[in-house]
Amino acid sequence: MEIYRHRRGLVRTLEAIERGSLTIGFMGGSITDSRGRSRWPEPVIAWFVKSFPKARIAVENAAIGATCSDQAVFRVKRDLIDRNCDLVFVEYAVNDMGIPAKTRSRAREGLLRKLLAGGTRDVVLVYTFAQDMYSDMVNNRVPETVAEFERLGEHYGLGSVWMGLHAMREVMAGQMRWEEWLPDGLHPEHRGSLSYAQSVIAFLNHELIVSPPDTDAADEYVMPEPLNPRNWEHTYNLSFDRVRLDGPWVIRRCTTIPWIDQTIETPAVGARLSFDFSGRGLSLSFDFGKASADFRYRLNQGEWIEGRSAGAPTSAWD
To answer: How far apart are CA 76 and CA 70, in angstroms?
Structure first.
């Protein structure tokens, strides 16, 4: 098992540094979430600032706790692509373990194809750790959620860093205690996050300083054919402007949840909304906090289907 996979060089990143302005993006779950400023992206950002003092460094951390790639694929354009990120780290090996392999495969490839379209940015895959990976890793096997990402990385020429393997080897070598790495069994804090960051920094040091790509001789990126033709590359968000409302609905600017721009809400039982869309499927996203909601829906005048969005201690996505 290898911690680092150096594939196509970080050409766009180095070009941005040479221009004097680099925008770094992060997409993932709570292990990458910027709230609290204690996760692994912080030392990585500090390394960029120290290593390239003449470059203006901007950061777009779009990671959201308890979310997966099937949600990220819908918001990556707004959160990272439209903000002109030159380098994006993608971290979903842990959170995606909770969704079916078929769904996560299509969502992951769609997410990567959106980021790679146009060849204007670099993408690096990073893998963290969850307890369900332990048995595979101690027996020198690659967990399937990581192996799936590696197949995509090989196909699209994306470098990768197995941060979780780096940290586990530190524990096995007596360089870090398990409770220093994962105090709650999943989320690294200061020492564990530093371990994750050190593996990413070692990768970046090789890519950008020790063996940097020749930007003058770099070929234009050509997007390969998809591994799965039914990936979610063409997903899109439906604007509230296209929603027909029946009942006391209100569209509000959200000021309490940083990753939500607008919400559409109603307190009325029986209120309805409808909209037209073209596509093979539909995904609805809810955030009710500790509350929940019952709802009914139907497609193409079919049978009504009942659903429920369950509440959670902090937030609930469906």
So the answer is: 11
